[in-house]
Predict the structure.
Amino acid sequence: MDPDADASGRLGLVVPSSNTTAEPEFRHALPDDITVHGARMALESVTVDALDAMSDDAARAAELLGHADVDAVAYACTTGSLLHGPGFDAELETRLQEAAGVPAVATARSVVRALEALDADRIAVLTPYTADLDAKERAFLEAAGFEVATIEGRGIEANTEIGALTPADATRQVETSLGDAAIGDDVDAVFVSCTNYRSLAAVSGLEATLEVPVITSNGATLWDVCGVAGVDCDGPGVLFNREP
């Protein structure tokens, strides 16, 4: 991150109500004098209909975070910020910025920015999602200009069940998927999707094993929001050595 970035600040975090991962992963990567302030949107199951309904609460959540005089707002939900296809992520960032009165980022757009910063073209994607959400994520990433070599989900709908997964689960899923002979050629980067999937702690080990950059939803969102807020953070992996 930028060595001239401020040593203190406040970050606003808009998360699904059932997300138990984003806040602790953000907190772990930030110095003590950068505080994280959360606002929640109702969501229990990670389905297309539930995510669509949840997005209606996003602007109000960002507006309330603006009352706390935060430096920037992050919408921390991957599928919730790509649900309606190309352009929805940018529109969501604009809506949140207008509501909060500060810069805003949304996870889907943050992932695109992170992959672009890493010069990644061909990627492997691992998710906890059902097949219909994996299909929407593939379509979004391909529309953004990436070749999705593989996308593999766990088929989970209950968000609390996703939140119970561990970094070891993420490591096993990545290594099993990339070890499948059907995948073929190497990839430029690996993306572990979902802000409720505890995977940020797996990044350094996976990068050492795979010798390619590995990003996660929370990692990309944290990297991006710290950049727009002008605050310092120290996340794992090569991404955090790149400028947002």
In short: The chain has two domains: 9-109+218-241, 110-216. The domain at 110-216 is CATH 3.40.50.1860 (Rossmann fold). Residues 123 and 189 are 5 Å apart (CA to CA). The first strand starts at residue 9 and ends at 16.
